User: Which sequence fits this backbone?
């Protein structure tokens, strides 16, 4: 019976540690994007900028709505990226980039038409985000 409680205790501790590591993040920028307090879509000098955070938990935000028929740049900000999220793809546009562990990578998306959706993902397809143009 002692073995059962020991295994149960270890399982509970493992789950708690996993949840803590998965949901904890010491970077305010990622938390702002996750919470929706930082705009994912901005405009700079007439160009639409779509901000996406790439971190060990994936890409944030996961769903973005942007303006159609506007010159658009995807700005990926890597924050403590060390997993498959660094191997970034947009299959529909035949784009593949290796993101740095820390830093900014900009990708020109052209001028997407109304109704178009762009799926960004890691090389494994495990982490994704979608940009819909309206």
Assistant:
């Amino acid at each position: 019976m002692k073995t059962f409680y020991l295994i149960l205790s270890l399982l509970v501790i493992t789950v708690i540690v996993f949840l803590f590591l998965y949901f904890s993040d010491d970077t305010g920028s990622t938390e702002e994007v996750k919470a929706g307090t930082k705009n994912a879509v901005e405009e700079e000098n007439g160009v639409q900028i779509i901000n996406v955070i790439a971190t060990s938990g994936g890409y944030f935000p996961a769903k973005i709505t942007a303006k159609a028929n506007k010159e658009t740049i995807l700005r990926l900000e890597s924050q403590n990226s060390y997993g498959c999220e660094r191997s970034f793809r947009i299959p529909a546009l035949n784009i593949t980039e290796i993101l740095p562990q820390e830093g900014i990578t900009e990708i020109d998306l052209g001028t997407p038409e109304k109704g178009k959706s762009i799926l960004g993902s890691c090389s494994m397809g495990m982490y994704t985000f979608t940009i819909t143009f309206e």
Notes: The domain at 28-133 is CATH 2.60.40.420 (Immunoglobulin-like). Residues 24-30 have pLDDT under 50 and may be disordered. The chain has one domain: 28-133. The chain has two helices and ten strands.
